[in-house]
Amino acid sequence: MTARPSAPDARSGSAEWAIAGTMLALPLVAVFAANALTPLVVLVAVLALADGRVRRGAAAAFPRTVALALAALLLWALASLAWADDDWARFDLWLQIAGLNLAGMVGLVAARGLDAGGRRRVETAMIVAAIGFTVLFAIELAAGGWLSRSAVALWNAATPWTSAPPTSGNLLGRGSAILAGFAWPAAVAVRRRLGWGAVGAFLGAVGVLMWLQPMLAAFVAFVCAALVAAITLRWPRLALVLLALGLVTANIGVVRLSETVVARYEAGTPVPDLPGSWRERFHILAFAVDKIGERPLLGWGFDASRRVGQDVVGPFDGNRAIPLHPHNGWAQLWLELGVVGAILGLALVGLVLLAAARVRAGDRLVTAAALGACVAYLVVGNISYGVWQSWWIANAWLTALAIGAIGTKPFSDRGQK
Question: Which residue in 113, 132, 242, 248 has its CB near the most CB atoms, within 10 A?
């Protein structure tokens, strides 16, 4: 008796359509409601799990060393609640962060398993998103955030829930940070479908917007990413070495500089006239280093930055304090999770960079885009945002999803020579 062939999975295309739809939605979400990046990642994961190919190919699709490093960091963060001053008060936040990262893994698995047709559809969506993101951000920048404030006003008028009108600086800052990373995988999609001329026009437009927008960190991130991407195209191995050395040197240098500047302020020694945001960050980092010195081995506990130093009321550019988080990823990890957390964070970043360098062996363009996006994220993360901000973590996963889509290897090819 001949076995009947199994019917194709009717839901097998749900992952690629979820990813394509996410790319199309990204500009609107990034510019108008960056916090909505979190449910967007979760939605992608839910739809991806409905795809039979994702479930069957998951074990081979995700970099296992990265998954293990991320799991180790999260488990150590969970353990740190045992010696935190507020005990397990932040356990609910830990669950949210762990769930978000799990959803991000599922989405990345789906992106890395796209077949040729799915990849082309996602690339088309990324090109549309790249154009839409650039145009929408330019309009918002020129209008000083008028569209975003108008959207909030309409929301308040149409619903019983009110939301405070956002400041243009915060909205444009978040949008620029997201665009600084997304631009690189999007540029690969543009190159494949429209050529190098279109890539130059797109990245040139993004560069101008990064220069004009108010958040200096995003501009610095974009420039650093461009340098790393350019070096990778010519010398991929050298780029990875220079990147590692640059990250270590820059972070050590920033800590030393902050201590020197703050000490001169407190001693009344003349200091060059620095922008207020610079002075603020120097004082924040100097304070974080002081608190690290009090509990260097185990730290203060997961998310302790939200209570350590909160008794000091701003302005923060003249006081050692922490407004919500240290505005530096490495300082936050060491402050909260001790030297073990800092080492685990360093291992995670190193493994992510190695995975990015191997995302599509033999295709330097994809490698350059992957490393460029990683650099953009790390630069902004060490200046502006907190490690545990859910929308910022979601941004990392959505950028990874875009990179996975352009460097995809279909599930059907896995395990073949």
Answer: 113
